[in-house]
Design a protein that fits this description.
Length: 344
């Protein structure tokens, strides 16, 4: 395919850029070709490529923040990223991580993606560790999962095969499982789609807030407080605390649609608040919004409004998809900037 495109477009690469994940086929191809042809090779972290893509699409090459929200991307620290606030300077080129969702466990790794109830169990365990009062978890949700749930709880207790993640997509999965909307997935994004659908079927005053039609005071009354702390040089949004509030609302008998709507509203406000703190520190005014989670139409509508309340300008995708379909643009722009800067 690569040879066909090069022949069709009459181009030859001067350098190669690939994802930082060592097991991707594209990474292995780039490494082999760079060795074979003596080409420069740069490995760009997954979310940095997302950030570069949305900023380049908006012709913004100076310093800017980017909220990179998706399911999975290998982080520079070896953990699974997916709820990242990055500072990107394409002109230099340079990027750094400024914030994230507070990490939680993925019991069983990829199995947790297919079975979101595992992530809900992990967040319940974190709530207990943080001494956050929660109602008794209805475990298992389905009788046939009793043995699997017991095994997962033992994995969590012993911290075996429980990689840490800051993924926004996995937080959506956990909330959807907690609300009984999706315990097991059969396609990518299924749990998040059901959660957004539940939010869209709530009462009119809440729908107005989701659609940006409600007055600020009315919308603010629906938002749960979400803590933002500073740890190890990073801002951290309290993902465990946000999950706990959904579980507590469920125990109090709140309508599932209203819980889903409040989750969307609260997450958008918290992400914007985190970006506001980072923007003031970095002296920037623009925030790119990218990653597969931005295919959620509700969040895509709420985040620019919440960022505007922080005095920030949202930069969004117009021609490219926010998911991995736009990564190649970010990688290409990064490579061009690295060549222009004469970097090895």
């Amino acid at each position: 395919m690569a040879a066909h495109l090069e022949s069709l477009l009459q181009v030859r690469p001067e350098a190669l850029v690939c994802d930082a994940h060592p097991d991707f086929l594209s990474t292995r191809y780039a490494e082999a070709r760079a060795r074979r042809e003596g080409l420069p090779l740069w490995r760009l972290q997954h979310h940095a490529a997302h950030a570069a893509a949305v900023l380049a699409e908006n012709s913004h090459y100076g310093p800017a923040l980017a909220l990179c929200l998706d399911g999975t991307g290998l982080g520079d620290d070896g953990t699974v990223w997916g709820g990242e606030l990055l500072l990107m300077e394409l002109d230099r080129p340079h990027w750094q991580r400024m914030g994230r969702l507070a990490p939680f466990a993925l019991p069983g790794g990829d199995a947790a993606v297919r079975q979101p109830w595992r992530i809900a169990l992990a967040l319940h365990a974190m709530c207990r560790q943080a001494e956050i009062p929660l109602p008794q978890l209805p475990t298992p949700w389905l009788p046939e999962q009793a043995q699997a749930a017991a095994a997962v709880q033992e994995m969590l207790r012993r911290n075996i095969n429980c990689p840490a993640t800051s993924s926004c997509g996995r937080l959506f999965d956990a909330v959807a499982a907690q609300l009984g909307l999706c315990l097991n997935t059969s396609y990518e994004g299924q749990a998040a789609i059901r959660l957004e659908d539940a939010a869209s079927r709530t009462a009119e005053p809440i729908r107005a807030a989701l659609e940006g039609r409600a007055r600020d005071r009315v919308a603010a009354q629906l938002v749960w407080p979400v803590g933002i702390a500073s740890r190890q040089g990073l801002l951290e949004l309290d993902s465990t605390g946000l999950f706990a509030q959904t579980a507590q609302a469920q125990a109090q008998g709140m309508d599932t649609g209203e819980i889903a709507a409040r989750f969307h509203l609260s997450l958008a406000r918290a992400l914007a608040a985190m970006a506001g703190r980072a923007a003031r520190k970095a002296g920037v005014h623009s925030v790119g919004l990218t990653g597969g989670v931005m295919q959620n139409a509700t969040l895509a509508r709420l985040l620019p409004l919440a960022l505007a309340e922080q005095g920030l300008i949202a930069l969004v995708h117009h021609e490219l998809p926010p998911g991995d379909g736009g990564l190649s643009l970010g990688q290409s722009v990064w490579g061009l900037r690295m060549l222009a800067a004469g970097k090895d």
